[in-house]
Amino acid sequence: MNMPRLQKHYREVVVPKLRQDLGVGSVMEVPRITKITVNMGVGEAVADKKLIENAAADLARITGQKPLLCKSRKSIATFKLRQGLAIGCKVTLRGARMYEFLDRLISIAMPRIRDFRGVSARSFDGRGNYSFGVKEQIIFPEIAYDQIDQLRGMDITISTTAADDKAGRALLEAFNFPFRK
Fold this sequence. Notes:
Blueprint: H1 5-22, E1 33-41, H2 49-63, E2 68-71, E3 86-93, H3 95-109, E4 130-134, E5 154-160, H4 165-174
Antiparallel strand pairs: 1-3, 1-5, 2-3, 4-5
Helix pairs in contact: 1-4
């Protein structure tokens, strides 16, 4: 099997650059991306079951992997929510699929966001992991605009082995991640 383009770029370009920039001795100390989690909350699915199915189909088309349906933990009467009702879906990407998704996200999807000026550099969690939200699923080329029932947003979390935010940001910048200047 061929190695994804971004994974090859990581091994040949990013690792030597980060070793020098961060001043680490071993190649194994260089931060790397461990997983990417894509989460889509569908709160309106309480009223209509078809919405969660459409959201799961969109997420499967975008990531190339079947999503896990997330169910509510307890009943909340004010939201007309029952325990065990599907209210969201998520996908955890690792390995080759993760690099393919990140490549499509950076080079194709993000430039298609309306009025895009870059993502905030302040969304790190203190341990080198980065999270951000996307307002519309139509930025991905796999989604046909005329075949969607409604616009849905999603949360994307990039988990890394970086010890702090500085190393995590250096890793993502080495992948040409579009941070706001």
